[in-house]
């Protein structure tokens, strides 16, 4: 057992270790077998005319906590479904929590903890002076990455995407659709069951520094929130 008092599987599931990931040639942190499969997909994308690149790969609990807390304080943008930035002062704590969870995972529940999931894009399709936003409109309905997204759609539909699929392929009433998010299914399926409300509560009890700033709002409704927002 680690200092967190949990198994290796739970450490990986919650993002509390880096022992399961390696740094790839492109700088991404992934599990080795997932990385090999991604590079095979990347080669196929190049043959199809796309520069498939990784915007985000492994993300630790600590990093996800920093992102979540900054959004809770209103220091990082929190958007509505139309990509409009929201005001912290205009929302109750509970309403603000739901706004954050629509687009950002609660630390300990992100699929990026596992080293199996990546956010992808094509940098060659971003016009000079603009930047990547990772919004659904970029990938759908004629957006800058819509052709890449359609290519991935076809591979996934034919079970021919090197083991990758989209866990956030549609809006199920919790997390927004994320067409940029690919997950390596053969390994990812091992860790979801270890991401439980009880494992998070135990972590927060053992390590006060791991508690999100929204802890007081979270703790009593954690089961319901995870049922809605954890995919």
Automatic annotation (TrEMBL):
Listed Pfam families: VanY
Protein name: D-alanyl-D-alanine carboxypeptidase-like core domain-containing protein
Domain D-alanyl-D-alanine carboxypeptidase-like core: residue ranges: 29-186
